[in-house]
Design brief:
The complex is a heterodimer of chains A (369) and B (630). Chain A is an all-alpha fold and 369 residues long. Chain A has 14 helices and 3 strands. Chain B has 2 domains: 192 residues, Penicillin-binding protein 2a (Domain 2), CATH 3.90.1310.10; 328 residues, Beta-lactamase (3-Layer(aba) Sandwich). Classes of the chains: A mainly alpha (369), B alpha+beta (630).
C-alpha cells in the first residue's frame, strides 16, 4: 500500500461531494444554520441534538437534489403533484386531528403532512406547465394554471391550515407572475381582492378571524388570544439596539415567549441580539434571496427559471410572514422562520428548495448572451 | 400564434426578477422600520413591561407583636409551622384531591369542615390550609407524592399561639382570616400595601384593638418569576419589622388565680389598680380557647361555642349588664353626703320595710334593723334606709351623681364593643319607651333603684371603675389593659392612659365615712365571714341582684332552679387606707353576694396583697346570708 495515496483519494472524494454545491449559497445557508443553532441553544437547549439530526438529514437531501438535473425534475412534476393531491384528499377523508385541524395523514409507519409537499410540488408543476406551453402563454393557460393552483390551496385551507395555504398559493403565484402574467390582471386581482375582503371575512374560520382581530388590537385580550403577540413584541422591543445578550433574554428564559423554539423563535433572537442582530438576519436572508434570483436569471430553461424564481421567493415569503407576525404587523399564521425554527419537515422542504437551486445553477447557461 | 423571441422573453423574465427583488427589499425595509420602532423608539416602554413581567414583589409578613403581662410573662406569641395548602382554582376536583391527600396525611373530618368554611369565605385563587402543623415526616411523605396533586403545596407559615389556651381569652381576643369588613378598616387606615401578604387580622380583644400596633411593617422580596408565576431567584430583599409589643397592666398570676377561683361558675371579675386605672385582672368565665380561631375554626366548634347555654363567647366583664344590688348602697350613701341629703350620724328607724303609695317595700330582715345610721346601713345592708333615701333624693339626682362615677356609660377600656348598661333617669325612660304611658317616670320606681334593683343595670367594669374611683379619693382613670406599647424599631415605650380622665368633686370626710363603713362590712358585716382572719384591712360591699322577683313570697334559693337564682356581687378595695387594688365580682346565679362572690374576692386579695396562692377554687359559703350576720 502506498502511504501517500490516501490523501489525494480523500480530497478527490471530497471534491466529488461538493462539486454540485453552490459556494455562495452554501456559505449563506451555513451561516444561517449556525445562527439557528446559537438561538436554539438559548431558546430550547434540549432540542439542539434533535435539530442537529434534522439539519444532517436535510443536508443529505439537499446534496441529492443538487445532483438531479432539472430535466429529471421536470419529469417528476406531474406525478408528485398528483400524489400530493391524492394525499390531501386522503387527509380530508382520513386525516388525524391535532389542535383542531386535520393536517396529518397516518400511513401506519409514519405520520406525514402532505400540505408541506405541495410547497415544492406546486411550483414544480406550474413551471413544467409553462415550459410545455412554449409559445407566449395565453389567457387560457393562466386560467388553467390558476385552477391547478387553487385546488390544492383550497384543500389545505379547508384543513384548516391558513399558513401553509398562503405559502402554497404564494409559491404558485410566483411561477405565474414570472411566467409573465400581465400587470393589468395582477392589479385587477389586487383591486378585486380588496373589494372581496368583506366576503372573504365571512368565509374565514373563527380562529382565523380572532387572529386578525388580535393583530389589530392585541391588548384587548392580553391573557387570551393577544398573549402571544404582546409577549413577543415586548421581547423584541425590550431587546433594544444590541440586545440583552445570548441566553440573557428575560422574556425568553422565563418562558414568557410562547412557542419560543418554533414559530416565535425570532422573538428570542431579537430580544437577545437586538436591532443589530435583526439587521444581520435580514441581510443574510436578502443575500440568500439575491443569490437565488441570480441563479434564476441565469437558468438555462424556462422551467428552471420559473422554478428557481419561485423557490427563492418562497424563502422570502417564509421570512417576511414569520418576522412580520412575530413583530406584530401581520396576523399570526403558522409559518416558521426559515432555516432557524425547530422542526424537521419545514427544514427538509427548505433544503430541498436549496438543492433545486443548486441543481439549476449547475445546469445554467454556459455562455452569457 | 405569436412569434417567440427568446431574448425578449428572457429580458422580460429578468425585469420581473428585478421587480421581485425590489419587492423583497421593500418588505424587508418595512420590517426594519418596525424593528426600529419597537427597539429604539418604544424601547423604554417595552423594557419596563419586560421588567414588570419578570419582577414580582413578594411581601414578607412581619412577626406579629408579642403580648406580655406586667411582669413579662408571654400571653400571645408566634411559631412557625408547615401547612398543607390548596389553591381551589388550580386543584381540579377538590373532593378527589382531599381524599387523595387523606391517604398520605391524616386529615380529620374537622379539617375538612374547616376547609369548607374557609372556601365559602374566600376567593378560589387564594391558597387555603387543609392541615396545619405538619410533622417533618408528613412533609416528607407529601413531597414524595407532590406530583399527583396540582394546586397543593407545603408552606412554612407563622402562627399565632396563646400558650395559656383559654386563659385570659376575653382580654387577648383572637385573630382570624381577613374578611371584607377587615379590608375596609385596612383601607381606611391606608394600610393596604402593608397588609398585602397578611392573612390574619385581630377579631376581638386586644388583638383587635391594637391590630395596627401588633401587625408590624411588611418587608418584601423582589423575585424574578417565570411566565407560570414561579419564583426563579431573589433579586433583593427588605426585612420586615416585627409588630410592636404590648405590655399589659394585667398580672397574669393574679388573673390565673381569679379565673381558678370561679371554679365552674359563670361570672366576671375586674380588678383595677386605683392609682392608675390599670386593669390587674379581668375575668369572664367560662372562656374559650382562642387558638381554635387561628387557622380558621371549623363550623361545628363554632356552633358549639356560640350556641352553648354557658355563652363562653360573651365577655361578661364588658358586655354583661347586671343590676348592682346592694353594692349600689355605698354609692347612694356618698351621693346623699355630697348632696347634703344625709349626715353620717343621722339615723332612721327601720320597721322592716317602707310603705309608699300603698305598696310595701320589704327589707330582707323581718322586723327591720332597728335604728340605722349611715355606717350601719352599709354594714348590715339595710334596704329601708335606702328606700327612704332614694325617695327623698329623686331619680334625676341619683342619675346625675352615678353618671359622674361612670355608671351607665362606656368606661373607654381598650377593648372594642363595650356595653353601656342602663343608668335610669326620667330622660332615659322617655327615650327608651315608645308609648306615652310608659315614658312617664313613677316616683315608686325610684325606690327600688335605691337598693340597686329596678332598671339599674351596669357592667362589672363600670362597678370596678366606680369602686376604684372611691378608693382613689375621687380621681378617676380610664380603665386600660395595656400599660405601654414598645416600638420595635426605636425601643420607645408609649404609655397608655397615664393621666386621670376626671376628678370628682368629693369631700375627703365623706369618702372617709364610706370607706369606714365598707371596712365595717368586711370586719363585722356581710363580708365578715369571707374575710375572717385577713392580715390586711379591706373595704367591701356585698350585693345580690334579683333575677326573678317573687312578690311577697319567701326567698328559697336552695329550691329555686339554678338559672333563676340571684346573681351574687361583691365590690372591694384594699388595703383600705392605701388601696392598691379595687375590684368588682359577679357570679351569675351565685345566690347571695356573701356566699359566692366575697370568697372569690378573698382569694384574689390574699394573693395580690400577701402572695398567698390558693389550692382550690373559692368555696361557696352556703351559710353566709345577706344582711345582719348576728
Amino acid at each position: 500500500m502506498n502511504p501517500g495515496f490516501g490523501l489525494p483519494t480523500l480530497r478527490g472524494w471530497w471534491q466529488k461531494l461538493v462539486a454540485p454545491l453552490d459556494g455562495p449559497l452554501m456559505a449563506i445557508t451555513g451561516l444561517l444554520v449556525l445562527l439557528a443553532f446559537g438561538v436554539m441553544a438559548s431558546a430550547s437547549p434540549e432540542r439542539l441534538n434533535a435539530q442537529l439530526i434534522n439539519v444532517a438529514v436535510a443536508l443529505v437531501i439537499m446534496r441529492v437534489l443538487a445532483q438531479v438535473p432539472p430535466q429529471r425534475l421536470m419529469h417528476l412534476a406531474v406525478p408528485i403533484y398528483l400524489l400530493g393531491i391524492l394525499l390531501l384528499v386522503g387527509v380530508a377523508l382520513f386525516g388525524d386531528i391535532s389542535k383542531g385541524a386535520r393536517r396529518w395523514l397516518n400511513l401506519g409507519f409514519m405520520r406525514i403532512q402532505p400540505s408541506e409537499l405541495m410547497k415544492i410540488a406546486m411550483p414544480l408543476l406550474l413551471a413544467w406547465f409553462f415550459q410545455k406551453r412554449e409559445a407566449m402563454p395565453r389567457m387560457t393557460d393562466y386560467a388553467i394554471a390558476a385552477v391547478m393552483l387553487l385546488v390544492p390551496v383550497g384543500l389545505i385551507a379547508r384543513q384548516p391550515d391558513l399558513g401553509t395555504a398562503i405559502l402554497v398559493l404564494a409559491a404558485g403565484f410566483y411561477v405565474i407572475f414570472f411566467a409573465g402574467l400581465s400587470w393589468k390582471i395582477i392589479i385587477g386581482m389586487v383591486v378585486a381582492g380588496v373589494a372581496a375582503a368583506p366576503l372573504a371575512w365571512n368565509l374565514l374560520h373563527d380562529y382565523q378571524r380572532h387572529r386578525i382581530l388580535t393583530l389589530l388590537d392585541p391588548e384587548k385580550d392580553p391573557l387570551g388570544k393577544g398573549f402571544h403577540i404582546i409577549q413577543s413584541t415586548i421581547a423584541i422591543g425590550s431587546g433594544g439596539i444590541f440586545g440583552k445578550g445570548w441566553r440573557s433574554g428575560t422574556q425568553a428564559q422565563l418562558e414568557f415567549i410562547p412557542e419560543r423554539h418554533t414559530d416565535f423563535i425570532f422573538a428570542v433572537y431579537s430580544e437577545e441580539f437586538g436591532l443589530f442582530g435583526n439587521l444581520i438576519l435580514l441581510v443574510l436572508y436578502a443575500l440568500l434571496i439575491g443569490r437565488g434570483l441570480l441563479i434564476a436569471a441565469n437558468a438555462a430553461t424556462l422551467f428552471s427559471r420559473l422554478l428557481a424564481g419561485a423557490v427563492t421567493m418562497i424563502f422570502f415569503t417564509y421570512a417576511f410572514v414569520n418576522m412580520g407576525m412575530v413583530s406584530g404587523i401581520l396576523p399570526v399564521v403558522g409559518v416558521p422562520l426559515p432555516l432557524v425554527s425547530y422542526g424537521g419537515t419545514a427544514l427538509v422542504t427548505l433544503f430541498l428548495g436549496i438543492g433545486i437551486l443548486m441543481s439549476i445553477h449547475g445546469n445554467r447557461m454556459l455562455v452569457q448572451k | 400564434m405569436e412569434f417567440k423571441n427568446p431574448q425578449e422573453e428572457l429580458e422580460r423574465f429578468r425585469s420581473r426578477l428585478a421587480f421581485a427583488g425590489g419587492f423583497v427589499l421593500f418588505c424587508f425595509a418595512l420590517l426594519f422600520i418596525r424593528f426600529v420602532w419597537l427597539q429604539i423608539v418604544q424601547h423604554d416602554y417595552y423594557q419596563t413591561r419586560a421588567e414588570d413581567n419578570r419582577i414580582s414583589l413578594v411581601p414578607i409578613v412581619p412577626n406579629r407583636g408579642l403580648i406580655v403581662d406586667r411582669k413579662g410573662e408571654v400571653l400571645a406569641r408566634n411559631y412557625s409551622a408547615y401547612t398543607l395548602e390548596i389553591t381551589p382554582s388550580r386543584a381540579g376536583n377538590l373532593e378527589k384531591t382531599i381524599d387523595g391527600l387523606g391517604e398520605i396525611i391524616e386529615i380529620e373530618a374537622k379539617d375538612r369542615r374547616r376547609f369548607k368554611k374557609l372556601m365559602d369565605e374566600s376567593k378560589s385563587f387564594e391558597t387555603l390550609p387543609i392541615r396545619t402543623r405538619l410533622t417533618d415526616e408528613e412533609v416528607a411523605r407529601f413531597i414524595a407524592h407532590r406530583y399527583r396533586f396540582p394546586g397543593v403545596e407545603i408552606k412554612a407559615r407563622l402562627f399565632r399561639q396563646y400558650p395559656g389556651g383559654a386563659f385570659a381569652s376575653h382580654i387577648l381576643g383572637y385573630i382570624g382570616r381577613i374578611t371584607d369588613a377587615d379590608l375596609e378598616k385596612i383601607e381606611a387606615r391606608e394600610q393596604d400595601a402593608n397588609y398585602r401578604g397578611t392573612e390574619h387580622f385581630g377579631k376581638t380583644g386586644l388583638e383587635q384593638r391594637y391590630e395596627f400596633d401588633l401587625h408590624g411593617i411588611s418587608g418584601h422580596e423582589q423575585v424574578e418569576v417565570d411566565a407560570g408565576g414561579r419564583a426563579v431567584r431573589t433579586l433583593s430583599r427588605s426585612a420586615p419589622v416585627a409588630g410592636n409589643q404590648l405590655t399589659l397592666t394585667v398580672d397574669a398570676e393574679l388573673q390565673r388565680i381569679a379565673e381558678l377561683a370561679f371554679g365552674d361558675r359563670r361570672g366576671a371579675l375586674v380588678a383595677i389598680e386605683p392609682a392608675t386605672g390599670g386593669i390587674l385582672a379581668m375575668v369572664s368565665v367560662p372562656n374559650y380557647d382562642p387558638n381554635l380561631f387561628v387557622d380558621g375554626i371549623d363550623t361545628q366548634s363554632w356552633r358549639e361555642l356560640n350556641e352553648s347555654a354557658q355563652k363562653p363567647m360573651v365577655n361578661r366583664a364588658l358586655n354583661g349588664a347586671y343590676p348592682p344590688g346592694s353594692t349600689f348602697k355605698p354609692f347612694m350613701a356618698l351621693a346623699a353626703l355630697t348632696l347634703g341629703k344625709r349626715r353620717p350620724e343621722q339615723a332612721i328607724a327601720d320597721p322592716g320595710g317602707f310603705n309608699f303609695g300603698g305598696h310595701f317595700f320589704r327589707d330582707d330582715k323581718k322586723g327591720g334593723h332597728g335604728m340605722v345610721d349611715m355606717y350601719k346601713s352599709i354594714v348590715v345592708s339595710c334596704d329601708t334606709y335606702y328606700y327612704v333615701l332614694a325617695n327623698e333624693m329623686g331619680i334625676d339626682n341619683i342619675a346625675s351623681f352615678m353618671g359622674q362615677l361612670g355608671l351607665g356609660s362606656r368606661t373607654g377600656i381598650d377593648i372594642e364593643g363595650e356595653s353601656k348598661g342602663v343608668l335610669p333617669s326620667q330622660q332615659w325612660k322617655r327615650e327608651r319607651f315608645k308609648k306615652p304611658e310608659q315614658q312617664k317616670w313613677y316616683a315608686g320606681e325610684t325606690i327600688s333603684i335605691g337598693i340597686g334593683q329596678g332598671y339599674n343595670a351596669y357592667t362589672p367594669i363600670q362597678l370596678a371603675q366606680a369602686t376604684a374611683t372611691i378608693a382613689n379619693k375621687g380621681v378617676m382613670f380610664r380603665p386600660h389593659l395595656v400599660k405601654y406599647v414598645t416600638d420595635t424599631r426605636s425601643g420607645e415605650k408609649r404609655m397608655i392612659e397615664p393621666e386621670p380622665m376626671r376628678r370628682l368633686d368629693l369631700k375627703p370626710e365623706h369618702l372617709e365615712v364610706i370607706k369606714n363603713a365598707m371596712v365595717g362590712v368586711n370586719k363585722e358585716g356581710t363580708g365578715a365571714r369571707a374575710f375572717a382572719g385577713a392580715e390586711y384591712v379591706s373595704a367591701g360591699k356585698t350585693g345580690t341582684a334579683q333575677v326573678f322577683s317573687y312578690k311577697g313570697a319567701e326567698h328559697k334559693t336552695e329550691t329555686m332552679q339554678a338559672h333563676l337564682r340571684d346573681h351574687a356581687l361583691f365590690i372591694a378595695f384594699a388595703p383600705a387606707d392605701e388601696p392598691k387594688i379595687a375590684l368588682a365580682i359577679l357570679v351569675e346565679n351565685g345566690g347571695f353576694g356573701a356566699q359566692a362572690a366575697a370568697p372569690i374576692a378573698r382569694l384574689v386579695l390574699d394573693y395580690y396583697l400577701l402572695g398567698k396562692k390558693p389550692k382550690a377554687p373559692a368555696r361557696a359559703d352556703e351559710d353566709a346570708v345577706e344582711g345582719d350576720p348576728e
